[in-house]
Amino acid sequence: MGGRDYKMFSRCGGPKEACGVFGVLGQEDAAKLTYFGLYALQHRGQESAGIVTSTGKSIHEHKGMGLVPEVFNEPILNGLLGDMAVGHVRYSTTGSSVAKNAQPFVVSHGGMTLAIAHNGNLTNARKVRDDLERKGSIFQTTMDSEIIVHLLARNLRHGLEEALVKAVSQIEGAYSCVLMTENKLIAFRDPNGFRPLCLGKLNGGYIAASETCALDLIDARYLRDVEPGEILIMDERGVKSIKPFPPRRHTFCIFEFIYFARPDSNIFGHNVYAVRKSLGRELAHEYPIEADFAMPFPDSGNYASIGFCQGLGMPLEMGVIRNHYVGRTFIEPAQSMRDFGVKVKLNPVRELLKDKRVVIVEDSIIRGTTSKMRIKTLREAGAREIHMVVSCPPHRYPCYYGIDFSTKGELIACQHGLEEVKNFIGLDSLCYLSLPGMLKATGLEENSFCLACFDGKYPVQPEKNISKLCLECREAQGRCQHPYP
Length: 485
Ligand code: SF4
Description:
By secondary structure, the protein is an alpha+beta fold. The strands form 6 sheets. It has a 7-stranded antiparallel beta sheet with strand order 3-2-4-1-10-9-11. Helix 10 (272-286) packs antiparallel against helix 17.
């Protein structure tokens, strides 16, 4: 899993990832390690990638649009000198997908250079940015992440630690960040802990990464998660932990378990693969349907289908075959070939599907348009009955914490009831996992999660009219024209 085929095609029409962050301290080949770390985190963002390194005296950076191997090559990595680095893969959730918004974001202030890589969305970005601009800050990008750096820069005269505490005290929302000065690596996470962030050790140095799969690839040892609300400052003397916030309820993003994180990662203290299988088992418990076999559309639903089939003692089949070699773009046939876009990525196995009763196990339905096209190809391949089970409840509300869940208007379950969604997609039956079933499958305390996209209860209230492009609209017109409805 991971990489563009996985996201661009087998899950097209689904929600987009937020970002992946990676940081290294005390490693000879810091740039290359970061390259591999970002490679492992590619599933979290495919629009741009960047690495910034430090020798202790000089900062080196390279960023660009595209996938990690498209942005970097051996000569570029060889030019990124130093034993410290921070890296970022981006899917834009605040600010356009343009080169100037690629991260890590670098700024020099008062003789100190800072580079930041941010995963998540600030929910009070407009207000804080307005305040900063009134006080004379000049912004280079339309990313909310730049706000954090400006807040830091304004307070550096008090020392780095105090500047960090003052900066995080003024921002709200979701942020899992790695930050680098010339000689320190800093990892910090918002007090709700929306997005994952972990700490690892390698050859006496430290690694911070969005997910543990990035530690695995470079043979780093997982030490622990960066705690919600914690700031870790790492240098050659070791790690210092600061906890500036009073304790508050954690609200981990449950959708990281369902969809975003890689199944080989452990996040929020649990293995993603195991949770996805449990989600499938809960589905089997709630919807013990009779059918000849169950199948996923690879790769979404792969792990939930295993649990679903184990729960019901039902055969698991791969009723569609994914072409792993389809790139980001392909040449369209000159003559119109029916459903070419769908079939080039996923082709049904006719012999398997003919006259069969089939259950599709999906991890989510966002707009429903991709599912509709895929179901049509299964019907044409001869499936007699097609049922769908979804390993989470219906998405009815947008996400303000770093996931690009379109707007309410684009969420099919917000606009339509179960029966209408079933008919739109072309199914014989449709079942979503219940909220209690989903929570039970995680094995964590029920109140440890953000469930806002399912129940509309936002753990951190966003300011009015925030959206992906609101900082740009604000620049252009003084008022956002792209609010979430
Ligand atoms: S609203 Fe949904 S996607 Fe966003 S943080 Fe909450 S659970 Fe995750």
